[in-house]
C-alpha cells in the first residue's frame, strides 16, 4: 500500500492546482463545478492507496529514497489521470452538452453537472468494488439488489459491468508475477483458438474438465518463459 503521507501530499497538490509533470490548463477544463473532479480524485487516491506504485522489496535498501520516489511516482500518475484523463472527459462532456442543448445555458450547465458527477460516481463504485472488503461488498450488493431498476437502465448497467470487469482484470493482471502473466496470456490465446460455436462436449463446466487438460496451459506458459530467458541469455 502507498503510504498515507504520500496520498495526503498528492491530494493537497491536486486541490491547490499545483503540478510538476503535466501543465495545468490555461482555463478550466469545463464550466462544470468541481464536485465531480473532487469525487474522481478521491476514487483515484483510494485506488493508489490500495496498491503498490513501487514494489515494497526496494524499501529495505533505502527507505528515504523509496519514500521520495514513491511520492514522485504517485504525483505523476495522479497528474496524468486528472489533467489528461478527467480534463479530457470534462471537455468531451461540455461539447456534448453544447450540441444537445443548443445555446441554452441552464440546460447546458445542468446536463454538464449530471454527466460529470455521474462519471465520478461510477468511478467510485468501480474502485469500491476493487478496494472494499468482501463483507462490505456483499452488504452493498444486497442493498442494491432490493432497489428497483427501470428497464431502460439495462444497457447502462451492462456498460458499467463491462467497465468494472476491465478495471478488475487490469488490477489483478498487474499483481501477477512475470511467469504468471505469461501463463495467463497463453490461457487467453487457447480460449480464443477454440471454435466459435462449441459443441455439447465443450460446454462442460470447468470443474468437470480433465485436470490434465487444465495444466496444459500452465506447462506451455512455463516452456515459453524458459525459451525467452534462454534467448535473453544468448
Automatic annotation (TrEMBL):
InterPro entries: DUF4818. Residues 223-234 have a biased composition (Acidic residues). Residues 196-234 are annotated as: Disordered. The keyword Transmembrane helix applies. Signal peptide: none annotated. The chain crosses the membrane at residues 7-23, 35-53, 65-89, 109-131. It comes from the Eukaryota. Keywords: Membrane, Transmembrane, Transmembrane helix. This is Uncharacterized protein. It comes from Drosophila ananassae. The gene is Dana\GF22703.
